[in-house]
Design brief:
Number of helices: 4
Shape: elongated
Largest sheet: none
Helix content: 55-70%
């Protein structure tokens, strides 16, 4: 009885293995058919990638070869810089040095010169108050 039971178990396992191999074969065949359908598309994509890489490389080479000088900036009236000629005083604060640099510049139409933050804030609130009235 025991040898017959072992033979039946071996036959069942062999049938299970054959069924699994048949299912696996069908799936592999479907995969291969799909890959054959995709082959032209993959080839076109590969050639497009190669062509774009070559184009980028050509553009990079072209940009390093062509070095155009920038045109000079045209100014209406050249003004000499006085602040650059004056030596910086060691005891001045950055705000004082900036004020000294801006002293020689011409004033812009419609712009008021305001010294210090407190004056700026006060002027802002005065203008706002006048607009509301």
């Amino acid at each position: 009885m025991m040898p017959a039971l072992i033979d039946i178990l071996i036959i069942v396992l062999l049938v299970g293995t054959l069924v699994y191999a048949f299912i696996l074969d069908r799936r592999v065949r479907a995969l291969m058919a799909t890959l054959k359908e995709m082959e032209p598309m993959v080839g076109a994509f590969s050639s497009a990638v190669d062509q774009s890489a070559k184009s980028v490389e050509d553009l990079r080479d072209l940009s390093t070869k062509v070095q155009r000088p920038e045109p000079p900036v045209q100014r209406d009236t050249p003004q000499p810089r006085q602040a650059a000629a004056e030596p910086a005083t060691a005891g001045q604060s950055p705000a004082q040095m900036r004020a000294a640099r801006l002293k020689g510049r011409s004033q812009v139409h419609g712009q008021a010169a305001v010294q210090g933050k407190s004056e700026l804030v006060r002027t802002f609130f005065d203008i706002t108050k006048e607009r509301k009235e």
